[in-house]
């Protein structure tokens, strides 16, 4: 099942609410109520028949978004503290789906990081529930060691941000293939093709459902620490 932009109420990073159509003033409340109730029903059927982790996470995010739209109808979804609200609502569901206890702080930090990356890399048109689900699955899912995504770091040693990541790799004892982008031109070419730029460090996370390219040393260090438990 695909969740696409425009099908559901969408909360932007600034807390404002995007609704699927552009209703006249006064119709928002009814739309949000309808959307919320439909989401509860949809989630029930999605959860019942769906064993895929990413789809379960996406369904949880959609339900939370609709509950948020309903709760903040009076102010058209404006809520500067949206991530805290989501964390409170989602803590139990995400912990259950992922099979580990997440703190609200972990969820809040992750939500803000994903939203920043989404808007910076894709813009608001990106179908967000799948993106959020993929990040949470990558960050927190307790895979069996052999099923864990394979990691490769695009880097060069003179880069201070890369050094931060190399230290985190050493500190956490994580197995990461190092791909020097100046020693091996193909690595640089691959990075350029995937990201449209060659800024490093970038962690390439290869799971059973493909590649994810994680830029930003801070995010990479956090990912490595979370993964190491
Ligand atoms: N905010 C980034 C900074 C990364 C960065 O500035 N990397 C430099 C090397 S230290 C780079 O790749 N510059 C060349 C470029 O952006 O193409 C991070 O923390 O990872």
Describe the structure in your own words:
There is one protein chain. It is globular and about 55 Å long. The chain starts with 9 loop residues before the first strand and ends with a helix. The strands form two sheets. It has a four-stranded mixed sheet. Strands 1-2 form a two-stranded antiparallel ribbon. The protein is built from eight helices and six strands. The longest helix is centred in the N-terminal third of the chain and has 22 residues, at 28-49. The protein has two domains: 10-140, no CATH class; 145-228, 3-Layer(aba) Sandwich (Glutaredoxin), CATH 3.40.30.10. 55% of the residues lie in helices and 11% in strands. The chain is of the alpha+beta class and 229 residues long. The site of glutathione has 11 residues, from helix 6 and helix 8.
């Amino acid at each position: 099942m695909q969740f696409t932009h425009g099908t559901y109420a969408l909360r932007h990073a600034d807390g404002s609410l995007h609704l699927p159509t552009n209703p006249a003033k006064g119709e928002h409340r009814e739309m949000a109520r309808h959307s919320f109730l439909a989401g509860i029903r949809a989630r029930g059927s999605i959860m019942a028949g769906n064993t895929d982790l990413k789809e379960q996470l996406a369904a949880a995010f959609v339900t939370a978004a609709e509950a948020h739209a309903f709760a903040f109808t009076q102010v058209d979804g404006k809520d500067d503290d949206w991530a805290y609200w989501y964390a409170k609502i989602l803590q139990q569901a995400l912990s259950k789906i992922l099979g580990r206890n997440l703190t609200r702080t972990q969820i809040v930090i992750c939500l803000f990081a994903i939203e920043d990356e989404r808007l910076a890399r894709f813009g608001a048109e990106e179908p967000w529930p799948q993106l959020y689900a993929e990040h949470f699955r990558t960050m927190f899912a307790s895979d069996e060691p052999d099923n864990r995504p394979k990691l490769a770091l695009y880097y060069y040693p003179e880069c201070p941000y890369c050094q931060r990541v190399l230290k985190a790799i050493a500190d956490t004892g994580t197995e990461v293939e190092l791909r020097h982008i100046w020693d091996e031109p193909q690595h640089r070419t691959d990075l350029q093709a995937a990201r449209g730029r060659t800024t490093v460090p970038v962690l390439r996370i290869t799971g059973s459902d493909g590649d994810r390219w994680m830029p930003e040393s801070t995010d990479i260090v956090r990912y490595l620490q979370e993964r190491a438990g």
